[in-house]
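Batch manifest line 355
LIGAND: adenosine-5'-triphosphate
JOB: complex structure
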Amino acid sequence: MRLKEEMSCRNEDEREEFSEQNLNHQPLFFTTPTLEPGFSLQGKPVVVGYALTSKKTKSFLQPKLEDQARIKGIFFVAIDQSKPLSDQGPFDVVMHKLLGKEWRQIIEDYRQTHPEVTVLDPPDAIQHLRNRQFMLQAVADLNLSDSYGKVGVPRQLVIKKDASSIPDAVTKSGLILPLVAKPLIADGSAKSHELSLAFDQNSLQKLEPPLVLQEFVNHGGVLFKVYIVGETIKVVRRFSLPDDVCKRELSKNAGVYHVPRVSCAAASADDANLDPRVAELPPRPLLEKLAKELRNRLGLRLFNLDIIREHGSGDHFYVIDINYFPGYGKMPGYEHIFTDFLLNLVQGKYKKRSC
Ligand SMILES: Nc1ncnc2c1ncn2[C@@H]1O[C@H](COP(=O)(O)OP(=O)(O)OP(=O)(O)O)[C@@H](O)[C@H]1O
Ligand SMILES: O=P(O)(O)O[C@H]1[C@H](OP(=O)(O)O)[C@@H](OP(=O)(O)O)[C@@H](O)[C@@H](O)[C@@H]1OP(=O)(O)O
Ligand SMILES: [Mg+2]
Ligand SMILES: [Mg+2]
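JOB STATUS: finished
ARTIFACT:
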């Protein structure tokens, strides 16, 4: 059953799969950028090659980003996948989010042969996030707990095959229902975002492995998206599944309930009239520490975290999802944050070389 289709952010028919045809091969800027004093790298423009789907190109390379880039002397150039990467550029930075083994190999080879180019980010580190069995491991290992709060991950169980074994496996593991069932592989396909909630023991065998079963954590229907761009973090509030969704759905019919993509809708929960104990953002120092550790442990610079606060706990947080190169276009002020990040990357590299 689907609840409030309109809340789902993505029409699955419209959702484009990753493919070469999706790539926008047109360079964005052809003219020499105007450099503002203080921003230029001795007058040299910064050239950023990008390999993104057309959907991502559209949501990321918005006019406001293009404007800031022009001001700061940054060129965005579309990478042409039909040509060897080494024949393109020269680039200062390469940004990418594409699927497939072949692409991973291309970008890995390029990193080895072009150590002077900053590749955002290493393909192996991105790949690590594409399996929900391992995605949250770094957060669990970190076991962050200080005077500002605690950050953990929900208890979870991996089911690779055989749906009929799920009820027993759940009983043995001691996981408490309801459970959120998430496809094991998070590769950005529509299917990888198809989540369901299982409320009762019987419905567990209706689920389709391979998947991860996660305990549902009551959190007051609000989720925090923590966007990370290098060393900068930005937090926004989003609506999430309400705590009583299980009760409501259970009263109608037991079974498996399809989870709508509530939290990825651009509508922010910032202006909603929410209980302050639910809406209060996680403490900044806690997020700073978490982001710094995860940057190092994951080896990534571009990602976001979905964080929820256990209802009534005050300061007990759970990371439930980590996404590589998320929808930065929805992050307030991303045009400044991102262009500054790119400039700093390249400036840092020049400084290192001159040392
Ligand atoms: N363990 C949990 N407890 C409570 N709610 C959860 C839990 N896991 C997921 N949710 C809810 O389901 C939504 C989707 O889950 P999740 O973020 O893991 O899926 P996703 O498809 O990877 O999302 P995204 O679009 O951010 O990539 C969350 O935003 C949250 O509202
Ligand atoms: O497109 P959107 O703006 O919704 O961005 C979403 C992004 O899709 P895109 O990479 O195709 O753009 C998703 O990536 P895949 O898992 O599907 O790879 C994932 O990162 C979501 O969490 C993002 O939503 P956000 O977390 O920022 O709300
Ligand atoms: Mg999520
Ligand atoms: Mg995700």
